[in-house]
Amino acid sequence: MALIDISPPLSEAIAVWPGDVPLARQVALSLEEGHTIALSSVSTTVHVGAHVDAPNHYVVGGQDVASRSLHYYYGPCQVIQVDLPRGARILPEHVQEPILAPRVLFRTGSFPDPTQWNNDFNSLSSELVDHVHAAGGILIGIDTPSVDLFDDKVLEAHHALARHDMANLEGVVLGHVEPGLYTLIALPLALVGADASPVRAVLAPPVV
Ligand SMILES: [Zn+2]
Predict the structure, then answer these.
(1) pLDDT score, position 208
(2) Which residues contact 60 (CB under 8 A, 6 or more apart)?
């Protein structure tokens, strides 16, 4: 079975939100230095690379990531290409095709290099979240670090997702993915209390 990896590699080179905790790996033991095993640990923001937010990231009293139902993150998925100016929100009119799956990933190309931060990425709009929800959507993903714009203070897309009890998937890499139908697998870790979790997001062939 051919799996398409849509997760950026997690190394110290990956860019994180300005001011957030970068990824660092500490090596405690190494075979090269004569230890019997290699052993390392990692410190990082939980919003590193491809990740899902939990409702407690943006709603007081919202669920933590360990409490989220896994059904959001596994199943039929549609990749949709959108073309709009950098720094703009995706509106329903930018979506040229019908929504055919409950999980929708938007390919914007507006955050092209996961190791090179840029502020002018695209995001969702609350109207788009409402539109996807009306079509039966339960998860929306995007190839940028956030479902809201970089300088947004209101977080309209995050709150629209919360209103509909939908899930997000941020930071995926879609430049090598043809628009169309797939099966998404992007399970978060059961990090108790956490406001997000990194995921290994992959696309498998659609189940027919
Ligand atoms: Zn996030």
Answers:
(1) 75
(2) none
CATH topology of domain 4-10+46-204: Glucose Oxidase; domain 1 (3.50.30)
How far, in Å, CA of 11 to CA of 49, rounded?
Answer: 10
Give residue-wise pLDDT tens across range 156-185.
Answer: 999 999 999 999 999 999 999 999 999 999
Mean pLDDT across 91-95: 97
Indicate the domain borders of the chain.
4-10+46-204
User: What's the 53 CA to ligand 1 centre distance in angstroms?
Assistant: 5
> For residue 196, how far is its CA from the centre of ligand 1 (angstroms)?
6
pLDDT at 1 over 70: no
What gap in Å lies between CA 108 and CA 175, rounded to an integer? 9
Give me the residues near ligand 1 (ion), CB cutoff below 5 Å. 47, 53, 170, 196
Dihedrals phi, psi of 52, to nearest 5 degrees: -115, 140
pTM confidence score: 0.96
Chain-wide mean pLDDT for the chain? Answer: 97
Residue 55 has a pLDDT of: 97
- Closest by CA to 163, choosing from 181, 197, 184, 140, is 140
Q: Which of 157, 94, 149, 152 lies closest to 118 in space, CA to CA? A: 149
Which residues are identified as catalytic?
A: 57
**Which residues, in sequence order, are CB contacts of 7 under 8 Å at separation 6+?**
49, 50, 172, 173, 199, 200, 201, 202
Please state, in angstroms and rounded to a whole number, the distance separating the CA atoms of residues 199 and 204.
15
